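Sequence only, no structure available. Ideas?
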Amino acid sequence: MRLLPALALLLAALPALAVPGPRQTQIRPGELWEDANGNHINAHGGGFLLHEGRVWWFGEHKVPGEAGNQAWVGVHCYSSPADDLVNWRDEGIALRVSDDPASDIAAGCILERPKVIYNAKTRKFVMWFHLELKGQGYGAARSGVAVADSVVGPYTFLRSGRINPGRPAQNAPAPGDPNAKHYFRDLPGGQMARDMTLFVDDDGTAYHIYASEENATLQIAELDDTYTQHTGRYWRAFPGRFMEAPALFKKDGKYYFIGSGCTGWAPNAARSAVAPAVIGPWTELGNPARGPNAEKTHFSQSTYALPIPGKPGQVIFCADRWNPKNQIDSRYIWLPIEWKDGKPILNWKPAWSPAAL
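Reply:
I predicted one. Tokens follow.
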């Protein structure tokens, strides 16, 4: 196993040696998606940031085989012109795992679902991610944070930990609530945080949304003005519903959520919901997927809802088709979010173009 990090780093360097591929015109969900160098895009559980006319894609860099279920390289970054979103340029590794075995992000840890937001006040790019300490399975349930002066990094890891230790939720449950036993258990040391996303509202307030309480309940935690700390204010959502893979977006003054149930790497029926505010109250809208394999969300799991720059109201459902036996071959399922009766809909499309929407 000592050789694996070195092998993974070698694989990470291969794109620079590849022959450029042809320019693509359509997104083909589930097919091998090559970057501008002709290599499979390696950015899973991804998040996206619009900055200076380009969209930046951050995701987990996977290595071959079951070793890909741990982090041996770090967070990979790609970018595309804002009016394209089909052709992506490899920007390299934005955050590398550490060779120091004492580091929270030591090679071999589990580092998932990185998301990056830009803070105009501090002029810093802030990355949050789900972190599990090396050798501890999914027991740590921490969040990690890193910062950079440039969108591509390198990002400097700041710390990891549980969320808001000792602070009660703004909508704290009553003692004895059967859907809150893990909330009360973790209250002194901080709330668990696994699958996650970030959302920045129109007023600049940023929120950290994550699966908590042994995945039974989502929590929505407010970030401070630096986006690197929590304010102590957070809300519980969907108590006892066992949701993960959260993705949020805003349309016509309402807030929409798409996520999944909790079935490990296996796909399940997606969940959707709407609220008048980020913090809720949330009303469930059912499974947004339609057509063949809708009960499996087209064999995918949500990771982000990407607003299409220059096309108000148009949003892309970004998801992963996980392959836990060989995660480097996990594929991307991107579909335009359509609407019916005020609900988001995910119709299967074997090929489509963001420019045509």
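Residues 1-18 have pLDDT under 50 and may be disordered.
Hope that gets you unstuck.
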